[in-house]
Amino acid sequence: MADSKKVLIAEDSSVIQNLTKKILEQQGCAISSVKNGEQVLSALEKENFDIILLDINMPVMDGMECARQVRALPDPVKANIPLVAITGNAKNYTMEEFQAVGINEYLPKPLNFDQLVEVVKKLTNKA
């Protein structure tokens, strides 16, 4: 990859966050990580990302509300960042519900890391 993709991981589990970070760093991605949706919005105020991996069940602000707020941002670049929901409770939501708040893809937990890499590559290759 010519330029490394900037990935923001929003995940309250340190184990999943660290594993995801290691896998994506091996793919040449630059990783930032936060523990809740409010921190996602704070991180977006400071910098741009190519993709956000969003746990649905997080404290303070969950992934669904965070996705709604990202899509409502005044900056069109930031408002259109690809969002990937990561959840162990996918049965609680339909793909239509994810799409209604602006989520592009979802990955079930436990994470399939090959699938994770594939989705990140697919959504960040704008060429």
From TrEMBL:
Residues modified as 4-aspartylphosphate: 55
SUPFAM superfamilies: CheY-like
Biological process annotations from GO: phosphorelay signal transduction system
Gene3D superfamilies according to UniProt: 3.40.50.2300
PROSITE patterns: RESPONSE_REGULATORY (PS50110)
Keywords of the record: Phosphoprotein, Two-component regulatory system
A UniProt-annotated Pfam family: Response_reg
Annotated ranges, domain Response regulatory: 6-124
Protein's recorded name: Response regulator
Organism for this UniProt entry: Xanthocytophaga agilis
